[in-house]
Amino acid sequence: MRRQRRSRRGYSGKKPSIAPFVLAAVLAAAALLIELFVNAGIRFIALPLLALAVVCAVYGLSLRCEPGLGRAVRIVLLAVLAASLVFFSVLEGVIIAGSRTELKGEPQVMVVLGAQVKQSGPAALLRDRLETAAEYLKEHPELPVVVSGGQGRDEPTTEALAMRDYLAARGIEAERIWMEDESHNTSENLLNTRALLEGKGYDMDDTHLLVVSNGFHLTRVRMLAERYGLEISTLAAPATDLPAKVSSYVRELPAVVKSFLFD
After folding, report:
1. Backbone angle region of 253, left / alpha / beta, with phi > 0 → left and psi within -120 to 50 → alpha
2. Mean pLDDT across the chain, nearest whole number?
3. What is the mean pLDDT of residues 219-240?
């Protein structure tokens, strides 16, 4: 009986601490608050916080297991963490390698993918996309452009409308700008743009698109375009706002995984 009681209390003979569970609860609560109330630009932090909460909870449970089982759980947990680190490091390398302009043939339609719009207008990442698009459109006056993006819960208007107005102010003729204003993610951007162009009479099996976005986004764009049977080139816009650039490269990791599995 004494030996059984001692094994339940762990290696030190003391009752296992509840600290891992408290920390897990705090991390999970923080993730929920970030998801519900924080600006979309840094909302990606919620996912790693939730993952850390799970790790803390599993570690806490391992301390309450029989010594042999608890040790095995912690070894598996460490192996999973190490494998995850390697996986995400490799994936980040793929994202960085894919953040490039890739032009093939003669595109018939440009597509600018939406990003955050603030009360003052397009945020830094979206302005970078629009400036890159405007420069190319002025050099190719025959090229129409689809601006694709709906309205997020913290945005004053649709991304498509904000993009149209921005390009028009840069001298791009209104009749060249077509709005797709229903999308809320990259998958919807591409699918809804295809539907819009088909409605305008384009045969998408024979239509070459030039997709404009920031470099960090383009690996995922190419992956989804290939999945949906779209022929695309990509035009990489810079990310001139350093904090937004860093957060975007981190945020793109779970976004690529999510799109690969579910889009």
Report:
1. alpha
2. 92
3. 98
Question: Torsion angle, CA of 100/240/37/163, rounded to 10 degrees?
Answer: -80
- Alpha-carbon separation of residue 48 from 140, 180, 258 (angstroms): 43, 32, 14
Which residues make beta-bridge pairs with 258?
A: none
Tell whether pTM > 0.70. Answer: yes
In DSSP notation, 225-258 reads HHHTT-EEEEEEEP---HHHHHHHHHHHHHHHHH
Rounded mean pLDDT, 125-146:
98
Q: Are 210 and 174 in contact (CB under 8 A)?
A: no
> Residue 208 phi/psi, 5° resolution?
-105, 120
Q: Which two tokens stand for residue 132?
A: 């890159």
| Cα–Cα nearest to 147, from 109, 188, 178, 108 | 178
